[in-house]
Specification:
The chain is an alpha/beta fold. The protein contains eleven helices and eight strands. The chain binds erythose-4-phosphate.
């Protein structure tokens, strides 16, 4: 399983990219709004930091096929690494299919069932994004959805890649990797938490103390 960073914060993207652990970025309208910056400007800057797939979403107010296609073409024109994020709706599926025909990569977002993932894949999605944290929030098993989609795609020889989205903690990450996800898109704070272990910190302190006792 690979990692994307799930943020529009360029400082966090730089930090994660410097660690060498991420190979792409996902954004959404809430994350862009949180930064309070112009969509195209932020996305352009991200493409200069990470050399991998960058998901930029059509506007949340754009719900029709024609509108989504206009924005999809604009987003795709920003940089060859751009992936157009499209919501899992009937109009979104049509747009996903048209993007596929035009060679535009897509990430179908807001997926909460295996059947939605199957439809998105059949419409030509490059990536499907099941949201595990938001399912957990309503007492449904997000991880079970990842396992089901992974099995379904494997049995049916489907190439669309599974991005585990709405990842909230390191346990989610480990479980996504074991469930057969291709990618987990994670906030920077989850990566930071994954780095640390109290025994690592204690081990460094003890090595320092033992070393200093003898060598000063
Ligand atoms: C990623 O593509 C999603 O936009 C994101 O992971 C949603 O996460 P959230 O449920 O924590 O907002």
């Amino acid at each position: 399983m690979r990692f994307f960073l799930d943020t529009a914060n360029v400082e966090d993207i730089r930090k994660a990219n410097d660690l060498g652990v991420i190979c792409g970025v996902t954004t959404n309208p809430s994350l862009i709004a949180k930064e309070g910056l112009n969509f195209a400007d932020v996305i352009k800057e991200i493409t200069t930091i990470v050399d991998g797939p960058i998901s930029g979403e059509v506007k949340p107010t754009t719900l029709d096929f024609e509108g989504m296609m206009k924005e999809a073409r604009e987003i795709a024109a920003i940089h060859p690494n751009m992936v157009v994020k499209i919501p899992m709706t009937a109009e979104g599926l049509k747009a996903c299919h048209q993007c596929h025909k035009e060679g535009i990569k897509t990430n179908v977002t807001l997926i909460f069932s295996a059947n939605q993932a199957l439809l998105a894949a059949r419409a030509g999605a490059t990536y499907v994004s099941p949201f595990i944290g938001r399912l957990d929030d309503i007492s449904e098993d997000g991880l079970e959805l990842i396992r089901t989609i992974a099995d379904m795609f494997s049995i049916n020889n489907i190439d669309a890649q599974i991005i585990c989205a709405s990842v909230r903690n390191p346990i989610h990450v480990m479980q996504c990797a074991l469930a057969g996800a291709d990618i987990a898109t994670v906030p920077y704070k989850v990566i930071e938490t994954m780095i640390h272990h109290p025994l690592t910190d204690q081990g460094i302190a003890k090595f320092q103390a033992d070393y200093k006792k003898v060598f000063g």
